[in-house]
Amino acid sequence: MDLAIHTEKLARVYKLRDAKKEQPRELVALRNINLDVRRGELFGLLGPNGAGKTTLIKILTTLLSPSSGVAHVAGYDVAKEPEKVRPRINMVSGGESSGYGLLTVRENLWMFAQFYGIPSKLANQRIKELLDVVQLGDRANTKSSDLSTGLRQKMNIVRGFLTDPDVLFLDEPTLGLDVEASLDVRKFVRSWVDDNPDRTLLLTTHYMVEADELCDRVAIINGGQVLACDTPANLKRQLQRDVIYRMEVSPLNGLQPEALEALGGVRKVSHEAKDGASVLELILAEDDALGHVVNTLTGKDIHILNLQKREPSLEDVFVNLVGHSMTEAESASDG
Amino acid sequence: MQATQPIEKRAAERGVSGRTFRAAAWLGWQIEANWTDPVIFFIYSVIKPLSGAAILVVMYSVITNANFEDPMFAYIYLGNAFYIYVAAVLTGVSWTVIDDREIYRMLKYIYIAPVHVPVYLLGRGFAKFAFGSLAVFITIVVGVFFLNLPLDLSLVNWPLFIVSLTMGIVMLAMMGLVLGSVMLLIVNNANFMGEAVAGALYLFSGAIFPLTVLPAWLQPVGYIAPISYWLELIRRALVGNIAQSFPTFAQFSNGQLLAILAGLTLLFTVLGFVVFRYCDHQARERGYIDRVTNF
Amino acid sequence: MDRVPKNSGWRLFVQTVIGRAYPRIIGLLREHSWFFFEVFLPVLSVAAYVFIYRAIGAADVFIGFVVMGGAMTAFWLNILWSMSSQMYWEKQTGNLALYIMAPNSLMAILLGMAFGGLFSTGLRALVITLAGSLLFDVHFEVANYLLLFAVFMLTMVALYGMGMMTASLFLLLNREAWHYANLAQEPVYLASGFYFPIKSLNFWVAAGASVIPLTLGLDAMRQLSFRGGVELGFLPVQTELAILAGLCVVFLIGARWLLSYMERLAVREGRLTDGRR
């Protein structure tokens, strides 16, 4: 199999020192990651904040050494042969502000093109084309310090595609972009991969819909581990035999959502408070289990305000694997 | 009830100012000092000013064959020692704008917090003032013990020294506020403005040579530079006999000089707040408060 | 769709140098405030030192020394703030990660910074020298322009080689970078004799300070530019020239070695993208 990215038992441990310079604590950011991304694939890395996505990208882009294990990108070992990996990759991170404020958009992009050895004339031609794609053509001669956050992000996205890498890493690329711009970027990302079978793109995101719509395959990562890796359709198919309900109810009156999981036929429950009500996402083994849930809720004087049966999404896959929703995972990692 | 409102409001305002100043001074202290351990920080704090003083000492000794008894040496050495405050306070207050806007990217959050921004800037400068004081002290101690600086503590006019020093520091802080306010409108190349302005004022403040050394056409600049009066008062308070040897300000009594310094301090206080108001308005008008230039 | 052709080897190296020098040079043309902050105000600072010499009755040659030394401070400031601590700033803004990840060598990036810095700072130093000389009636008596030019160029190569070396050390630093750069400002003004002949210091102090290329470079340039300069010189110009050539080799090789060592260390410890403020 022709692999663009291959990792084996990849791990990274950070040593954290506190302000008082006591013994460093260890933070395990990645543990035993085994991942294969095929050439020509648009691969998604899905997980909450703090899951280890950015650490993995840093290792794959030669910016960070693994603590153990190996990683190959474009056929080369990132730790041992970074100079062979670098001409073949590029990266765009959401929310970053690369380049120099005193240079114009075009000049910043030209400068980065020089660092990749693209001849000036060709670089300028590509800059023009790509700026038009992201509708930034009319701002080519604006100093980048005068750009809004969203426009600066568009410039970064152009910087990533400009060098036509074999493997492109997009780390939360639509962060800071409005809905319309995000849609444009997603469309472009998909067509970029489809245009040439030699191109591979690894996208990290915590937007489930983005991963679902765009990616050929998705790895779900949490707590530094890959929990599942497959096409979005296959991942969702694992839940196909399950029944999924979205139930909006009055406040839970002290009822713990976990108590519902103890009921027969209830596989997973996630809970989110919303506008004074509670939203329960229920993954049930069979329709009949809904009766037990309803009885328990009404027994606690909780009213059902809305009930919907729906198709499984990647969010449900995440809940099924991790035990709680992405939002809950982020709150836990923030705390 | 209504009659007490203005009083309560003023008290609340004072509370905000006090809280702002304390928090800003604490933050300034952390930023200045907590990047290393105390020993390295102490060395760092004194080595820079001592080197500055040593440059003058070497220059002086090369030309005068190390004649440290000459009043000129005490004039230069003390003027330079107290000039440390000028760079420290001007930079401390004005640099905060660049530091918070470009590096820590916090200025916008400071702005939307219920604080007084000018008081915040002054508070942030306090740490540099404190470390500057340490540097001034060490520089003088080195001068007294190693270079025969004729400073006799029993002959020092302490009340004059304390009043002049306090007033001078307030004046410098307000000059710093003027500079910091201007920095709100400068979005690049302003990194070293505090030090550059202090370096330029070195020429006109009579710190290291009497103003009479300047060409006649430049001397008026020295006479309108407020730091000249402050340094003259400091010299008169600490080494009165040396000050007499350089009669640049002989026509003024101590009282008159103090009155001039008080007037200038008041002027810069008013100017500081007026310029801040103007620049603050302009900066918000132009959208510079949260500007990150990546220059 | 056709793939984009890319240069490698020496072509990529040259392109990178030009690419990184570009912002430095264009900045000079685009932002004119440097004239006020980096020429006008420094000229006033230089003037202060000139008047100290006048106040204590120094000979005219010292005025020339101060003007030349004052102009050369621009290069030291450039090394400290635009080469060394620049690395910390690049890390903060996210550019450092992009530089490392790109196929160019970091050496080319630093050379680009150096060339850009040398050009822009050279222009500033020239203006300060001209303004100072006109204002204070400094008389240059250059016996050998070629030698003067050679000394200047060797000094610059050694100095920017040193700058590249210190920049690689700064790869590992965070917030403390600013303070270390700040710490190296005045002590070097003192040790390198920016405002007085280095001969005035103890021989061993002056010899130690000669590690900084500006020390001997400035001393040799003063010897070659002013009447009476030779008597105030630290070592014979030829000796200083030879030492400067040695420093060039040491610093350039050292920079190359240290840069690759530090880059590996920074990648291992995860400090390339960890911009703690």
What does the model show?
The complex is a heterotrimer of chains A (335), B (295) and C (277). Chain A is α/β, with parallel strands linked by helices and 335 residues long. Chain A has two domains: 40-54 and 77-234, Rossmann fold; 241-311, Alpha-Beta Plaits, CATH 3.30.70. In chain A, 34% of the residues lie in helices and 30% in strands. In chain A, a hairpin with a 2-residue loop joins strand 12 (266-274) and strand 13 (277-284). Chain B is mostly helical. Chain B has one domain. In chain B, 75% of the residues lie in helices and 0% in strands. Chain C is built from twelve helices and no strands. The N and C termini of chain C lie far apart (44 Å). Chains in contact: A-B, A-C, B-C. At the A-C interface, strand 6 and helix 3 of A face helix 1 and helix 5 of C.
- Rg of chain B (CA only): 20 Å
Low-confidence stretches of chain B: none
Q: Within the CATH hierarchy, at the fold level, what is the topology of the largest domain in chain A? A: Rossmann fold
Largest interface: chains, residues each: B-C, 42 and 43 residues
- By oligomeric state, this entry counts as heterotrimer
Q: Helical stretch count of chain B?
A: 11
Under the CATH scheme, the architecture of the largest domain in chain A is 3-Layer(aba) Sandwich
Helix share, percent of chain A: 25-40%
Provide the succession of SSEs of chain B: HHHHHHHHHHH
Shape of chain A: globular
Number of strands of chain B: 0
Sketch the topology of chain A as an H/E string, one letter per element: EEEHEEHEHHHEHEHEEHEHEEHEHH
Distance between the termini of chain A: 41 Å
CATH superfamily of the largest domain in chain A: P-loop containing nucleotide triphosphate hydrolases
Largest sheet of chain B: none
Structural class of chain B: mainly alpha
What's the story with the biggest beta sheet of chain A? Answer: 6 strands, mixed
